[in-house]
Amino acid sequence: MSVGHDDDDIIIKEKKKKFRMIETDEKELEQKLRAHRRKIMRRALIAGAVVLAVLFGVYIYFETKTFTDYTAVHTVERSDTAATRFEEFQGNILKYSNDGAFYTDISDNMIWNQTYEMQNPSVDICEGYLTIFDKGGSDIYILNKQGIQGNIKTTMPIFQVCVASQGTVAVLTQENGASYLQMYDKDGTLLASGELHQENSGYPIAIALSNDGKKLAISMLDIGEGKLETTIAFYNFGSVGQNEIDNIVASYSYADKVFPEMEFLNSNRMIAFGDSSILLFEGAQKPKVTQQTKLDKQVKSIFYNTEYVGIVYNNEDSENTRHIDVYDMKGKAVLAKDFDMDYSNIRFLANNEICITNDVECRIYSLYGVERFQHTFDKTLYRVMSGATQLNYTFILDGTTEKVRLK
Fold it and tell me: What ranges do the domains of the chain cover?
């Protein structure tokens, strides 16, 4: 039996009915896709905003919270003499006293030690170098993370020593009313020397050496003929200074003012602290005064780092007996804060927080004026070091070094 053509036509027609073509509106499809994407984007933005709000809330909580206790994450027992003093150097701890210095990591593992005999050991640090010298004595040791690099023995009593970032050392010595200035290489080799004549420019009361070792500042006090005047002179030992008389490239005189402390903050910026003002000098070759901050009240303390200067005054008419003003290096006020703690030390930590301590108390303030930490210890506190985060610190206490987390 065979199938005719009529039957084949019927079958084909039936199949065509089952497979009908559907026309699609492309514009409508694009609109639906865009609407779907916007919906997903809104959900993602809402979720992100919620996460950011939570994180911001946590941040504000920790930024404004005052912590009064801590958990010791790691504790190391130490054995030091009663006269030991502590400095932070290259992320580790320098311990020094009259009979020697020890350089250790936070866990008290020895990196190096240096023995000596000094009546009044003092330290100056610049980046990767430090010098330990006997103020009033004759011994100077130049060291870095690897240990001793040079040793100097002066013929006259040491008044002040400054070290540069590559180990160059400037030494001011004084004896019988005469003052002498020497420059040494890091291995103790004498580079230059000269006498400072008091009858010409006054009596030297402070020196400062730039980080690169090329510029030296001297503060000279002249009290002759019933007047008081301070002259700050800058010496340049580079090519520019060779064209000047005695290498002096700049000199500034201030009547009725005394500037007993100076410090180079880097190679081209120096700060001078006076009895009635603070001066900021800047310049790669010939430093000039770029900022002057007047001190209208009697100053109790001054502390600083490379970014900020802090001044502490007594607050006689307030229950908060102390007041802090902090300025940046452009002279802009960044903090004004009262506090009521009797302290023996105030300084900036490595994270720019302000740390105020006495033998057993510690307070830490942020640059926003928030009291971050307040605690009274049950043993003597020697040093506070900031950690990797805002909640981590290292406390150097009597007999122990403790890495802690605030709580």
Answer: 44-77+298-407
